[in-house]
Each structure stands twice: as C-alpha cells, then as structure tokens.
Amino acid sequence: MENISFKNVKFNEGFWLNRYNLNKYSSIQSVYKRFEETGRIDTLRFNYTEGKIKPGVAQDSDVAKWAEGVSYLITSDPECCKDEVAIIEELIDSMEAHQMEDGYLNPYFMQLFPDAIFCRRPAHELYSAGHLIESAIAYHKATGKDKFLKVMMRYVDCIEKAFITEKTAKFQTPGHEEIELALIKLYDHTGNKKYLDMALHFINLRGNTDEPSIDENVVTKKYDQNDTPVRELTDAEGHAVRATYLYIAMSEAAQRTGDAELQAACDRIFDNISKKRMYITGGIGSSGMGEAFTVTYDLPNLKAYTESCAAIAFLLFALSLSNNRLDPAYGAVIERIMYNNLLSSTSADGKAFFYENPLEIHLHSLEKETCMAPHKRSKLPIRTRKEIFETSCCPPNINRIFARLGDVFFSEFDGTLVVNQYAALGLNNDSISLSMDTSYPLNGKINVKANACKYKNVYFRIPEWCDDFDISASLSYKKENGYIVFENVGDTFEIAIDFKMMPYFVESHPNVRANAGRAALCYGPVVYCMERCFNNYELNAITVDSSAKIDVVSTGIDTLPELHLNGALSCEFDGLYRKKSNDKKSVPLVFKPYYTFANNGECDMIVWVNCI
Amino acid sequence: MENISFKNVKFNEGFWLNRYNLNKYSSIQSVYKRFEETGRIDTLRFNYTEGKIKPGVAQDSDVAKWAEGVSYLITSDPECCKDEVAIIEELIDSMEAHQMEDGYLNPYFMQLFPDAIFCRRPAHELYSAGHLIESAIAYHKATGKDKFLKVMMRYVDCIEKAFITEKTAKFQTPGHEEIELALIKLYDHTGNKKYLDMALHFINLRGNTDEPSIDENVVTKKYDQNDTPVRELTDAEGHAVRATYLYIAMSEAAQRTGDAELQAACDRIFDNISKKRMYITGGIGSSGMGEAFTVTYDLPNLKAYTESCAAIAFLLFALSLSNNRLDPAYGAVIERIMYNNLLSSTSADGKAFFYENPLEIHLHSLEKETCMAPHKRSKLPIRTRKEIFETSCCPPNINRIFARLGDVFFSEFDGTLVVNQYAALGLNNDSISLSMDTSYPLNGKINVKANACKYKNVYFRIPEWCDDFDISASLSYKKENGYIVFENVGDTFEIAIDFKMMPYFVESHPNVRANAGRAALCYGPVVYCMERCFNNYELNAITVDSSAKIDVVSTGIDTLPELHLNGALSCEFDGLYRKKSNDKKSVPLVFKPYYTFANNGECDMIVWVNCI
C-alpha cells in the first residue's frame, strides 16, 4: 500500500483550498517575519556576533520546517513563494559556506559551543539534523537543485562517523528523536541503504543503552523513550512529540525491513493512543508536565496540553501505518486530527498559532493562586494564539503539514484506489484523472468523476461518524470492513455518495473522569464548542439534552454551520449549597466548530458539556 | 450573647460520647506516643544535644495544643489522663527551669539559634507563644495551678518589650497569626487590659507595615494577611489557617472594644467564606499551593486541601461570631464542620489523622506523571490518615477541639437559652438543669427536659437541612428567624422536637465548576460518600437519579445508617468515543458517611456524584 503524494492532488474551490491558501499566503509569511525578527533566520546565516540575538538550541530546525513547507508549496505551484525561496537559497549558500570540513553543521554549537559538538544529549543536535534532512529532500524534490541535499549528505556522513563508525560522540541516542525518520526518507530518496541502516542503528539502540535521561533531575528515561527496547513497547509514554516521531520511524523501518516484531509494537502503540490516550480533537500528550503522555483515560480539558506538534506527529504516524494495512482506523484518526486539533492550531487570519490546544477555557480559575509569588504560580494554560513562542516548533510544523495535506486523501494497492478523505479536489496521476466535487465537511455529499482510470477497484472510507449513506452510481458496490467497495470500475466512472451529516452528541469511555456526565456536540468530523462570547453564561452551569432539537444554521458557502439548540442553565442562588432543585431556565445556545475558538478575544470555552 | 462552656455540658451515651471518648482514650495517647518518638516532647525538655533529633520550628506549639486538649479533658473529668498530666507537669517544670532571664521561652531558638531570637518573621515564634498561652490558661482553669500561666505571663512581658515598648525585634507582625487570639484569652482570664492592647497592636499592624511576605520568593503579602489593613478586608485570602486565626482574633477584639468597623470586616469575611469558599464538608482553603484560599467558587474535589486545622479554625471563628449576634448561620456552619470535615479528620480507631481532607480519591490518576523524576512530580493528595506528619499541627488541634466540643451546644443572652446543636447530653449550670435525650444525628428526634430553669425563653436552632419538624410540648412556640422560640418556659419544662430526617441530594451554586452536573447525598447534617471498596465501579461512571428511592439502612444503635439506592453505571466500550448512548446498567450503590472514608484501605471515593 502506498499513499498518493500531494503532488498529484490539487484542491479546488471551497473549504480546503481556502485553508490551504491561508497557510500559503498568510501563515508562511507570518512565521517568516517572526523568525527573522527573533534571529532564527540569522542562525543559519552564521552571522552571530556579540550583542546580537544569540542562536537558540534547535532554532535551525524551526527554519528547516518552514523551508520544508515552502518546498511543498512550490512543488504544487512553482510560481509561488518567490521571496521565501530567495531566503532559502541564501541560507543554503550560507550552510554550504559554513559547513565544517568534516561535514558538521549545527549553527548553535558552531557559533556558541564549538567545543561541545556531539557532547550534549539533551541539546537537539540530531533533531535539528533530521529536520534539515527532511527540508533538503523536500527542496530537492521541489526544485531539482541538489546543493542543500549534498550539504546534508555530507553532514550525515559526519554523524555516521561520530555515532557509528568511530563512536567519538559523547552520547549514543538523540535526546529528541527525529533523525531516525529523516534518515529513512533519505534512504527512500537516494536509494542508499546506509541511511536505512543508520536509522535502524538509532532505533534499535533506544532502551538498550545505559545513558541517563536528558535531565535526571527532572525526568526519567521514559521521558525520552530510553527505558524500553522499541520492540517491547506497549503504551505511548513520555514526551509526546519525541515519542511519536520515534513511532513514525519505527513504522517506516518496519515496512522497509519486514520486521514483524517492530510492526507489532507500532500497532500496539497506535491502539494504545487512539483507544486510550487521545482527545476527541485528535490531540495527544495530555500533560504539560514533561509535555507528555500520562496514564490511560487521563484527558483533562482545562489543562489539556495537546501540543500542535504532537497532533501533527500523530497524524503522520497514522499516515505511515496506513501504508502497512488497509484499516479505516488510520483514516479516522487522520480525519479527527485534521478537522479539530490541526485546524484549531491556527488563527482565522492565519498569522497566529496554538502551542497547546486546550479543550476548555475558564478564565475565572486562571488566577486562582492568589497568594503565590508570580514566578511560583503554575504555568497558565494558553488561551490566545501567538505568532511566535520561545520554543517555536509548532508554527513551522503547521506550515509544512498544511502544505502537504494532499498526502492524506488517497492511497493505492494492487490496482486499487483508496479514497481516505473527502474534499473538493482533483487527483491526477498515471493511473487516473479524478475530480471530487463536494462541500465536505459542510455536508457529506461527494461526487466523484473519473477518466483514464487504470485502477480496477475503488474503495471509499466510510467516515467513522457516519451511520447512514446513500449511493448513486451505475456501478454496484459492497460495504466491507469500513469501506464502500466498487470493483471493476472501468476507464470512466461516476459515483455520488451522500454520507448523511447531522449533528450528534458524543460520549467518552466511562473511564474518562474529565468527561463524566458530559457529551460533545459534533457535526460530521468536526467537534463543536461553546464560547462565552456567544453564550454569556457560566458554561459549566449549562446542561443540554442529547435529544434536543438542533438547528443547523448556515454561515456561508465555505464555512461550517453553527449549531443552535436550547439548553438548561442552572439558576444562581444565595449561598453555596441547597437541596437539589430543578431550578433551571431554558437558554438559547450557539455552538461553533471547536477549531474557530479564541478568535474573538479571551473568553471561556467548553467542548464537553453537561448532558442528559 | 455568650456561649456556655463545655464545663457545664456532659455527653450521655451515644454518638457524641463515643466520639468524645475516642479522643480521650485513643487520640490523645496516640498523639503523645508519636510526639515522644519524634522528639516533640523532648523539645520542651530542653535536652537537645548533638546526635539527638533536632527541635523543629513550632514543635512546642504541637505539644502545647495536645496539653490544652488534656487540660479540657481533666476539666470535665479530673480523674482521667493521669499519665498525660504527669508529662505536662514535667514540661511545665522544664519550661520554668529553662525560661530565659528576660522571660523568653522558645525551645527551637533557645536550643538551636539563640542569636536569632525575634529575628525571623517566618519562624512561628509568636505562633508558638500563642499556643503555649492558650495551653497555660486551659491548664490553670483545669487544675488551679498557676506555674505554667506565670511562666507564660513572663514570656508575654518579654514579647511586649521586644515588639511594643522597646521594639528590639527584627520584625513587627508574626508570620503566622495565633498570638492575637491567645492574648485576648489571657485578657479574659486575667482581666489585665494590657493583653488586649497587645492583641490590638498586632491586629492593627497587619497590612500597615512594609514588611515583606514571609518568603518573597514563594508567596505574596496576601499569604500572611499583610497586604490589607484588617478593617478593609472583604474576602478570605492567603494561608487558610493563618487567615482564620486572625479572623477569630478580629472577632474577639471587636466584641471587647465595640469596634463596629472591625466587626463589619468579620461579618464580610464570614459571608465570603460560607457563601463562596467553603466545601460542603465545612472544609476551607481549597489549594495545596500555599495551603490557601483561592478564588470564589474554586472548590476542586480531587485536590481539595481543606486542612483539618483550617476547618477547626473556621469552627472557632463561627463560634466567636455567634457571641456577637443571634444568627442560625453560625450554628449551621459549626454543624456542617462538626459532622463532616472534623469527624473525617480522625480514623475509626482514633489513632490516625488527616491533614488534608479530600472530597474525592481517584487512585488511577495519582501516578499520572509517569515520566517525571520522582522529586519533580506534583505532591500527591493524601489518601490515608497518618499518626504523625512532618508538620504535625493537625493531630493535637483535633485533640483539643474534641475535648472542648461541649462549647458549641448552648449559648445564652438576656435570660434566653439558645440550643445551637443537638446531642445526647446534660447541661448543668446556675441557670438550668437540662437533659437532652436524642440519637441525633441518627435521627432528628430531640427530647429536652429541664428543671431549675431560670431562663425565661428557650430557642432551638432549626438545622439548615431541616424543612419540616413536629413539636410536642405543653408550651406554645413560634418560628422566628431560623429558631423555634419558646417564651416563658417556667421552672420546669419538657419539649420534644422531631426534625424530620430523610436522605436528600444537595446541589452546588452553579458557579462551582467542580460540581457541575453533580449532587451530594446527605442525611441530616451528614454528607455521604461512595467508596470503591463498597461500590466496585469507576465511581465517576455512575449517575444517580435524585428522585430515586433511597433506603436508610441501620448499622447499629450508635452509628449512622447506610444509604442504599440504585444508580446507572455507564457501560464500557471499545475505544474512547462513540455517539451518546443510553447504554447504562442499574447497579446497587452503598453510600456511607463521608467522615468514615479511608478506613478500609486506599480506594477511590467520591462525594459529588453525577446526578440527574
């Protein structure tokens, strides 16, 4: 099985083209501006002098991810992003000019700590190298220019020497995974098996060294996935982004080596996350303490950490696994992330981003530590998107994922085309010329027309939320394992499916303490929320009836509807406690898509509403 | 108005006599043993030498509170506690022998830091002095022996010099309040107005100095109530025990000086706590961060701090205020604390104690910080009572409050007797010989017989939970402002009241986020809970119907009934989310009094249950 590349997919008018263009014409520029202002671009200009902003750890990786995003954009549209490409060219020249004789290339260590090269396990050196490798591959594929790629291949040789051949490095495994998956991409791109072997070297070492955790004073070896050999893993543990980058590499490695044990570990982990550790928004990593996975069913809403990078990594892990086995669970997770945690990551104007993506905001509680010295107070949950962070990994990760989002829609195996996601788009490759006409996710009506089709069969993933659909096609179909299957479709075909989309309430597994007695209102793949700016009540004092009549109120041709219903607001009374009453009043409620929250100033927000 | 002293009140057989005796025959001995083992008793023997356990800050105050408890016990029963009295006598001799020439008497500073006397505001010096003063007064009243009292009066002279006359002390107000209320007790006991003036000096200084907080690196001046002059206070703020000890002193001072402004501040604070910051158990101080009050309606259950000392202080604050004005709110708060937070403070065998009194236990969540280094993990909520703590202020505070609990039952004003609480007891003073026959709180039937009554009127407080009562008496009565009022009762009377006691569900003010959609089951003044050892389900997955039939199941002649009802348990399913179902099964539930929880091993517990 193989995913069909975004190169072959082009969004047409509508929801996803708008979203794609928001990244292309706003986010990419906003991230660049802030990166220039904060010295991140300068980092790769190697122009640090006393008095300037000091290069920060791994800031080159931020720029690399941004450049990777630009590369995907110019792959699809070679005429776009001229200014950004000029910057990338400048930085490539700079990297080539400053690369050390032995191939080493990390601007933080070279400019600030040249004596500490490959000495500090926590310092993200190989993480940065990984992102630069991914970026170089993307740029080479986009432009055919190989200078960046060659620079990185020289760096990889240097890494091989230090960590494998000569073992001069002072640590064995990277404190933050990323290079493993990048090396496998480099193997795919060059065909040179040494890169795959290097990736396997790093993957197999994890949990098999006596290296301490990246900071024994703060975290255990679980934090950086160095407590258990990878083939023995059962649960997702530790720093969510580090962990999931490793899981992606494990999955990619298992598919290339046929390592059934490694594949089984990946399958266990995917099950563990998607069935026990994932927010309804697709977010993962519930705790800010260590930005980490915690225990099963621990999914607090107010303190949900759910880093944007972690959701992106989980999407990529699901995408990788979807190449191993036909299973609608992967597409379901990807759809959940796409329409919720991923969309929420960015402001309506495209310029600002969430690092955390909380599932509840309750402003009154935020200042509860009234008598603690300001620096002793607990870190407050985020409540507004920001254009830049001190650790600004998320914004460029958001850049690059939207620029390649076409990757998630189709896959193919043995003469079969699989439609995994739905959007108004065209697919054109050697095997088909297909157009999908739809307003999805505004409604579930899909019209697919195909010409020059060499595929024998076409599978459509039935969305996880969909209980009922209509099909209009001259072809017959069957429902099989979560897919609608059309066989022998012929050279030309036309299929219309209506995945019946209606608002519905979702409940959590009863072990999720945070959501006890509560439900989330959804419409298609989109989770909805209430914001206090549109519902001026104490949001936790509202109870909805899951059988209430819900009006789907259109808000425009390319934007999702609002959901209107009446709820019961508990009435205030003097004092704190009284015998339970039914003293509630009916109030009109406006739910909007979760991902749109926090675009109207700071205010309370809730996803999981009290529900009977 | 004046409370009638516990000296005149004697519990008869039943619930409260058992509880009183548990303190007298088990807790007092348990606390003494642990204090002896941990060097706390030695602290006042002034026998520290290299290699022994070092005296700790304020450990003398722990011993003082324990001795105060013993003093109350021997007040009521001069034949009891012979061993404990011998220890107290030994320690009094030791204190007299070691008291410094200028009267100073703090074993921690004298034995470890003699050069730092009255230099360290955070070090609880005056707090300890206050507890020793209270203890000395109690011992003098109990025994007529004045050695301890004289020692403390000499110490107070020394304090007066250092803080008021000569101002040699390096700070102005105590970092932990307590001496203020002790000085007013000393004024009451001796009639010497200088002690009242000293108390007023310390009270009036608060919020009027430029002293920093006790630790500017950790807390603000709000923490130790030094940010606002006392007459301007509106809300309860900062460390809950420090704050409430101050509020008690303010109330006592206002009553003795007629200071209306100070009284108004007390009234505002009592309203603020009881209407916005108090757990249903009467616990206060919701946050472990600073052991402090936070913001209004912030009453988390899992992380409820609700220190036993804070509940005791709040009871004493309400008791003090009840001498200012006839208002059933004070008795209601006292009853709430008595039957819930105060009773929960002690194990069934009387030997172990809660410092915090959580309103929920969820063991699975406790180890959620899986990848943090052990010392970096959040402090876990308490889940078992302990015989001793590093800071062991609560156990002896529990000793002394139970030993004087007779204080809360009656008060008198202008020829009127007020019955504030109900128990099987006798009241004998110059004005009445009264016996109350009742099984309260097992049921609400009260039979009062009185002889030799010189009171003109008798008021019975209608319990806050009581909607309906029957009265059988030859006297007529009226219902007035929360009381049942009998006028012109005569020399002898007999009154039977049946406060109709039935199980009922309580709801919180809708702004209490933690209790949204939930209710607590109560019976009379007693809050009930479910423990997993008696209800082996995920407790948050249970929903009760507030109209369900509840069986009141007797458990014995002197113990509270269990409440049995059926609830709906949400069924487990594969995965995390699904469309809201009504897939629940009916399960039998056993609720027991909250205060009995954690007597059967560590297990989950819940007070606020999902409720429709």
With strands numbered from the N-terminus, the spatial order across the biggest sheet of chain A is 1-4-5-9-12-11
β-strand number of chain A: 23
Oligomer: homodimer
Low-confidence stretches of chain A: none
Strand content of chain A: 15-25%
Q: Number of helical segments of chain A?
A: 15
Biggest sheet layout of chain A: 6 strands, mixed
| Cα-based radius of gyration of chain A, to the nearest Å | 25 Å
| End-to-end C-alpha gap of chain A | 44 Å
Q: Choose one word for the global shape of chain A.
A: globular
Biggest interface goes to:
A-B, 76 and 76 residues
Arithmetic mean pLDDT of chain A: 97
Task: Assign the structural class of chain A, choosing from mainly alpha, mainly beta, alpha/beta, alpha+beta, or little secondary structure.
Answer: alpha+beta
Which percent range fits the helix content of chain A? 25-40%
